[in-house]
Amino acid sequence: MSEINKFASDFIRAWQFEDWIETLETEVIQEGYGYEPGEFNVTPENWRPLFLEGLSPLDAFKRALNAHCEARKAEEAPSMTTYQPKQKRGDAA
Question: Which of 53, 47, 52 is nearest to 24 (CA)?
Fold first, then answer.
């Protein structure tokens, strides 16, 4: 690929990403999920890997929401492997 073609390809890809981020922020997050402008911070570099995977802005947001929910569940769930009930005095074997 010539230098000019690579530059043009990179430029087009950057433009597509900017358009993708705009769609994510306005159409998905604000219009689709009801967030107010500025209420949900969209940091482009956090979303670039999902764009590069070829996900739509909606699918990327759904994946992010699911990951957030799963992380929260894991954080809130008591760890049964480390849970040891306290023994009452006199209950020792």
Answer: 47
Structural tokens at position 27: 């159409």
CA distance 15 to 20: 9
- Which pLDDT value is given to residue 3? 82
Question: Measured between alpha carbons, how far is 23 from 12 in angstroms, rounded to an integer?
Answer: 16
Sign of CA dihedral 14, 16, 19, 25: negative
Tens digits of residue pLDDT in 35-56:
999 899 899 999 999 999 999 9
Beta-carbon contacts of 28 under 8 Å, excluding residues fewer than 6 positions away, are 57, 58, 61
39, amino acid identity? E
User: What is the value of pTM for the model shown?
Assistant: 0.69
Cβ atoms of residues 47 and 60 within 8 Å:
yes
Q: How confident is the model at residue 76 (pLDDT cuts 50, 70, 90)?
A: confident
